Amino acid sequence: MIRGIHHTAISVGNMEKALAFYRGVLGFDVVMEGGWKTGSAQADRIIGLADTAAKFTMLSKGDSRIELFEYSSPTPKQADPPRRVCDHGYTHICLEVEDIDSEYERLQAGGMTFHAPPQEALGNMRAIYGTDPDGNVIELLEIIGT
Fold it and tell me: Which of 127, 144, 23 is nearest to 85 (CA)?
């Protein structure tokens, strides 16, 4: 029986830079940190790669969790910049916000890149897509009148 989504994981190029964004700008809290060195057969079996090494940080905000991974082995490829959200695969994570206009301004000042200001969406919602420092897409969504 599936109970729900536990977390979303994101591979990042630089953990400190990612934490500055996810903690400092988005306001997530660190729940757990860890990692493993090359030679962990258990990690390699779980992940399905050989000779892995990485550090991770689990973050939380409300009922949501994001896990950041910085792999040192195998050497990661940078994602195809910019990956279009219509391309197959995971497209984005969505953060529900209050006062989307203020959050848009605050996050833009904090280094988040947006292609437009918040837009009306489906009647009682406003939304906009932006990117984190590694180009991962984050949607801001405000549900109006709840």
Answer: 127
Write down the mean pLDDT value for the chain: 89
User: In which residue ranges of the chain is pLDDT below 50?
Assistant: none
The structure tokens listed for 133 are 């420092």
Q: Which two tokens stand for residue 119?
A: 């837009």
3 state SS for the chain: CCCCCCCEEEECCCHHHHHHHHHHHCCCEEEEEEEECCCCHHHHHHHCCCCCEEEEEEEEECCEEEEEEEEEECCCCCCCCCCCCCCCCCCCEEEECCCHHHHHHHHHHCCCEECCCCEEECCCEEEEEEECCCCCEEEEEEECCC
Q: Which domains does the chain have, with CATH numbers?
A: 8-73 (3.10.180.10), 93-143 (3.10.180.10)
End-to-end CA distance of the chain: 30
| Single pTM value for the model | 0.82
Distance CA(114)–CA(51), nearest Å, equals 37
> 102: which residues sit within 8 A by CB, 6+ positions away?
none
The span from the CA of 85 to the CA of 21, in Å, is 21
